[in-house]
């Protein structure tokens, strides 16, 4: 199909789709790779930091433990504040060109992108996880301690499973933000969706048509991701019914009981 | 009789506030001791100091003659030997009824899962909750939760069981089922230390009743003496107020 400057809007959209779909596809794939990896790594980082930042100290704790935690907490707080307080676009420039200039490390744009999104997400998730942990009822900690669990065992078996379930909505939020925000990585020439769209648009001087297509692709990605994560959230709630098991008094009982309404 | 827990000169401050003043007291094997007193008298704090959920400001806690506060036993090892039942049940919300009773055995006592499950079933049967092993805490009633909490503590086979107002958060019609289980345990010879407002339980089940008022143990005697012939004026006033209601 031939198009020229006077062709109608939809002709152009079809033309772009027909000729540039591999470009869009590659761009969308890179966007997904970066945001997915970044979200997962950032989440792991956030859990780690959130757990460290909620380690309790009391007057009986050892002096070295207290001092060590103070120093570590201070460093972590610096990390969180700096990465939350500066634009990711600027961080990308500083890290990508800084690594090349100061340390002579020439990162590939893709790896640099994944790195930047990861530590950015980590900074946000660290606070979200910390909030998730301190929102768990004190009684859960006390009950675990009272049966002899250490702080680590309590975290791993009792608190984190509950905290993570509570912060899943925030995690899917972060994922969606990452899909959209990877677009700023075009400044370090990561070939993600926005970068690809820009070159497609530039080739044809057709910005509106191309970016409308880009817009739709972004929306399809974010919408699909929220649906998928919502599905997992519901599944993690567990079944609303439970089975009554036979006992010595009622041997064959296998009755399903509907769950009570949740608070 | 062998003393399981002995407290000497225990003091606890919350900031400037002296909550416990020079507490001396002990629990022997097989004893059922009820601690009574009005709200804010320090009963719960005393219990929580015993298994180190609150750190005593000064004083000694001896567990079978060993001083716990001198770091010759880590807190978690010691805590596993004293069970605790809370007013708010505090069942692990992410675990089913059976896993609530299994997780401590596996993680702390390093039992294998199968024998832990067997042990848990034994105690869930005892408290009458064996049919609900797959339920999550939010799916069962308050009385049922507290019975599971008792089974969870028993599964660890502690040397003594501490109860912190176990029936205070329950609807009146559920108090009975929990007290029934506790009476059964008392009869079976378990060492129990119970902070409670259930005077009939204290009178009928306890070997000893301790009356506390504003951070001190005012009276420590058999239930007959405490309820029929208390030697202290404060005990008399408290009991009159409670029993008249």
Second rung of CATH, namely the architecture of chain A:
Orthogonal Bundle
What is the number of independent domains of chain A? 1
Which stretches of chain A are low in confidence, meaning pLDDT under 50 for 5 or more residues running? 247-253, 259-263
CATH superfamily of chain A: MetI-like
Unreliable residue stretches of chain B: none
How much of the sequence lies in strands of chain A comes to under 5%
The rough form of chain B would be described as globular
Write structural notes for this entry.
The complex is a heterodimer of chains A (263) and B (245). Chain A is mainly alpha-helical and 263 residues long. Chain A has helices spanning 9-53, 63-85, 88-102, 109-134, 138-146, 151-181, 193-204, 207-236, and strands at residues 241-244, 255-258. Chain A has one domain: MetI-like fold. A two-stranded antiparallel sheet of chain A has the order 1-2. In chain A, helix 1 runs antiparallel to helix 6 (151-181) and helix 4 (109-134) packs across helix 6. Chain A is flat. By secondary structure, chain B is an alpha/beta fold. Helices cover 38% and strands 25% of the residues of chain B. Chain B contains 9 helices and 10 strands. Chain B has helices spanning 43-50, 75-79, 97-107, 113-126, 142-155, 172-187, 199-205, 223-228, 233-244; strands spanning 3-14, 17-28, 32-36, 58-63, 66-67, 82-85, 160-164, 192-195, 208-213, 216-221. In chain B, the strands form 2 sheets. In chain B, strands 6-7-8-3-9-10 form a 6-stranded mixed sheet, with helices on both faces. A 4-stranded antiparallel sheet of chain B has the order 2-1-4-5, with helices on one face. In chain B, helix 3 (97-107) runs parallel beside helix 5 and helix 5 packs parallel to helix 6. The longest helix of chain B has 16 residues, at 172-187.
